[in-house]
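Summary for the steering committee. The consortium agreed at its last meeting that each partner would contribute one worked example illustrating the joint modelling workflow. Our contribution is presented below. We chose a case with several input lines so that the handling of multiple components could be demonstrated. No manual editing was applied between input and output; the record is shown as generated.
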Amino acid sequence: MDPLSWTGNIAFLDPLLFFALGLLALSVLVWIVLSAVLPENRAINVTGGSASLSSGPLVLAALAVKAAFLATSALVAVYLLLGIVMGTGAGIIGAMAQRLLPVWIALVLLFTLSILFKRKLGLYGKLFDSPIGMIGFALVMFWVFTGFFGAVDMIITHDPLAQLSGLKNKVPGTPLRSPEDGDFLWYLLGGDNLARDVFSRMVKGAWEVVKIAPLATVFAFMVGITLGLPAGYFGGKLDTFLSFLANLILAFPVILLFYLLVTPEIVQTGLPQFMAVVLFAFPLIFFYVLINARYRTQPQKNYLWLAVVLLPMLALYLMVVSAPGSKVDILPTALDRIDIPGGILVVFVSVVFVNSPTVFRIVRGLTMDIKTRDYVAAAQTRGERPWYIMLWEVLPNARGPLIVDFCLRIGYTTILLGTLGFFGLGLPPESPDWGSTINEGRKLLAIYLHPALPPAFALLSMVLGLNLLADGLREESLKD
Amino acid sequence: MGLFILRRVGIMILTALCLTFVVFFMTNLYPNLEKLAKTQGNFRMSDEAVASWLEKGGYLQSTPKKYLEWVGLAPSYQHQAEDGTITGRCITPGMDPKDAPRFCGILQGYWGYSSVFKDEVSSIVATRLSLTGILMFWVMLVMVPSALILGVLAGMKEGSATDRTLSTVAITTTATPEYVSGVLFIAIFSSSAVGLKWFKGTATSAMDSPNLENFLLPVLTIALYGMGYIARMTRASMTEVMTAQYIRTARLKGVSFPKIVLKHALRNALIAPFTVIMLQFPWLLNGVVIVETLFNYKGFGWTLVQAAGNNDIELLLGVSVVSVLVVLITQLISDIGYVYLNPRIRIT
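What follows is the complete predicted structure of the assembly.
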């Protein structure tokens, strides 16, 4: 077997791509310089006094940027399409494009459906009016789909933990030395220090992030909302106390906190588990109050809803929190169906713990602002209970900033997870998550680049996508 | 104003006490102490031997009492052995127990003894902190001016080409954590695989003689991540100021655009970024830990990792006291500075 080159038979496209990229850079540069040098575009001409937009060099430059960008994107699309068709014939790029085929299909489906029905989809639909938001959403969903399909072993080419002989630190595109039947014949992005496939580990790493980061952010929001609403609404002593607690956690250097929470000695004392008991209870409290505030006057409906929502959640809560043989062992083993590996639980708890004070502060600030509005005064005059006002009047009206912050916070959580992996805290050492992989790869960075760079770029693009998505959402929600 | 500062300082001291207590509690949990006893004594100690070792060091008292002793508000523990010799925290070897001071804690300047570096914690923290101080100085020197320029240029004309490009740059840098940008920098500028080799991939030699070759990459790595955030805040504040009434008045009077930006807008636009810069310190501390580990620069962050990784309880406590104080003092400065800079609050 020959080693694969980066672009294989479609190498003839490379000069074209470089040319297009050069054009793009040049046009952006010209655009910036022109906009700094030229005076502002005045809508009203001095001579005639009539309103007309002049098509000066600035407009031309903006057009050039757009054209160059479109040309570059078109070329990238050609690469991907040819790659999907030709597979390894189109080199490493082609092979990767072909492996990622399920992701492309899912992305195309998602985008066509969303764009077709975007007027009926509320804020989510409006996202597709903003190019920045669309790029961000595409990046995020790319990694989400990669994570999902990777988790069911669809994209990966090899077992992410398997070490194949002769492939230690080998460059991208190295063929397997003695492939068996049904094996994929190359290490697409090379082998790492322990001769494992970098590409498969990167794909599996996406799943580590996709399964922890959004869920941890949701929990942090539950905690922040459940505490932030009363703090902002009632104020007074409660607010002082809760804000003091939040500031306490915020003043803590994050890495020190991680080191204190995640070391095996502390895990042995059961402290993270007790924290899980407290933190995981917040969704239960939140939904209890949410339903009870709404249907308090209709007991029948109230009990029905509470039973339907809370009982499964309670069962889930007990199963997650309880672990046989540890400090929190409340359920009999026969009932304890869910067993979260200790490391993941600790990581999850510490990430939620670090994130929730910030959410608390945001919710508190928003509540203090919104509670002065007329509709809150109207609800108070109607005689609504405080919790009803908080959850059914204030919270829905605070959703815009909260959604934007939610996106940003998932990105931040991803960075935190990477930090944990980078310091080798919590997750098992062979875990394919991006932080651990970067940490392993960096030790050999002077000689071999390929083990560290793919996870680094993956993390960068995912967080960038989330930030762009948040930016697009903010822009669109401000347009109302 | 005086009362305000007093109140803030009071809250700060309370916060510092709470935080150090939390750290103290968590580092003094029994498994940690057991590990300490085994690393200090020997690894095959029986449970009784561990207990007697801890008893001798006064580790088995209640946590609040130990905490007060450590802070220096309670007389420190003394252990009388069966042959009548008295040992204790305050008694250095060879000293007569009667001459030893009763109180020896943080307040008296006794920070303890590092079990890993075999040295006084206070001297370790001082040397490491000065090394990190140099790093932070250069980071600030690079980060703050470039972030402010970036933000002001972008916020000057909202929606212009400059704004869009610079905002994209700012978003990209905030999406690049230090361990990603550091790895990219090392890969591009110092590895033999790319072959540029302009800078060094480690900053170990920068501890003695920092120069461009060994210090630029770590400084740039930290500065880049913080820069995007400050730049975005500056931009937001600048765009807000540029739509204010008095700017429009100035424009209608025919004042030139550069003059409006420099004389009328800039001063008011820089109030918000000041707070943000100050509140970035806890963040920078994070970055410092990552970058010092990545570039092997043996400063404060590196010490934190070593202390935490090796269960060096007293050093870890010393490190956390300093970092908590740094964070709280910068918060205090930011609060006071905000009040002082903003005439609307200062005068009322």
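Chain A has a mean pLDDT of 88. Residues 377 and 383 of chain A are 10 Å apart (CA to CA).
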